[in-house]
Amino acid sequence: MKQRTLSIIKPDAVKAGYIGDILSRFQKEGLHIVAMRMTQLSQSQAEGFYAVHRERPFFGELVEFMTSGPIVAITLEADDAIQGYRTLMGATDPAKADEGTLRKLYASNVQNNAVHGSDSPENAQIEIAYFFSALDLVG
Ligand code: ATP
Ligand code: MG
Questions:
Q1: What's the 92 CA to ligand 1 centre distance in angstroms?
Q2: Of the residues 9, 20, 50, 59, which has the fewest C-beta atoms closer than 10 A?
Q3: pLDDT (tens digit, 9 = 90+) per residue, 96-111?
Q4: CA angle at residue 102 from 99 to 46, to 5 degrees?
Q5: Which domains does the chain show, CATH number per domain?
């Protein structure tokens, strides 16, 4: 069943020049780009996006990191896109990520981990709407 998920190329990966490599990997893996936008999150936008983590001890640093530079938000579409993309990303901590995954290749540590991906259909819908209106989504 066709499904959509939200990807973010995080500030560390944008700064390091990995946008092109990551986008090309989406295309190789059959994750179709249906919307894409570069932006820099304000503090309140980053806090809103990661609201589910607001009680976690690393929340303040996470918000600081996510606002530290431009990001690229992308809506991806494929059969089973949410799990497929999470497998492509690899474990949250790049030290635990499988070979060839985006985090193994491009992440520095558990916080500066290059990419974000939605973790459920409910969150994918909320996260896509956080960055895109229905008119932005192609097809
Ligand atoms: P994401 O939601 O970004 O796709 P994830 O689902 O693998 O990643 P979450 O548990 O949702 O991981 O954590 C959200 C983000 O918070 C992580 O991607 C990472 O940037 C940061 N983070 C997670 N755990 C830690 C930690 N122990 N220390 C610092 N930052 C962390
Ligand atoms: Mg998550």
A1: 6
A2: 20
A3: 999 999 999 999 999 9
A4: 145
A5: 2-136 (3.30.70.141)
